[in-house]
Amino acid sequence: MNSMDAELLPLSGLAQLMYCHRRAALIHVEGIFEENRFTLEGHFLHERVDEASSRSEEGYRIARAMPLVSGRLGVFGVADVVEFRPQPYPVEYKRGRRRHREADQVQLCAQAMALEEMFNIEIPEGALFYDKSKRRQVVKFDEKLRAITMQAAQEFHRLVREHCTPPPVNDERCEQCSLRDQCLPTVVDKQGSVHRYVQSLYGAAS
Prior knowledge:
Blueprint: E1 9-10, H1 13-19, H2 21-28, H3 37-49, E2 53-57, E3 60-70, E4 75-84, E5 88-94, H4 102-119, E6 125-130, E7 135-140, H5 143-162, H6 180-183, H7 185-205
Parallel strand pairs: 1-4, 5-6
Antiparallel strand pairs: 2-3, 3-4, 4-5, 6-7
């Protein structure tokens, strides 16, 4: 995949996709988005961090709100912070407490892969900074995470290209999702259950 083969999509969509394929499609295929407390907290955090600037600190340069593009992944976006040590070291800011969340790690890895293309270097690690914990979580960009990130990018492009919106999952992820009222996971899930039940009846009768 490269920018000549596919339209560039928002890098942040990879995190949406890793959280929930349906959520990613509702936002990037159907153009639906609603705010809730969690998304607003995230926006306020990024507004504090993402004022475009470049300054020196602790012996190295720090760039904020740095534009990124990856032809390989077919995405574009903005890195919250890139520390030049002198090698670029991406830092993504997240709301909440420090935790292991694959969606966050994939988003950070995609930023690193974009930086690798832009600077023609290899970046072994970066960090996630969780606002409530005030602590960093170091993320190693190993082959497994890179493969997951590439697969996510391919799936993201497929959803957009095919205008595909998957059915809802209706699990614990839905409780904090800002698109719950638009997605209607319980209603659609019940409809799907009825459809499967009718199919089972006709299948049993045949």
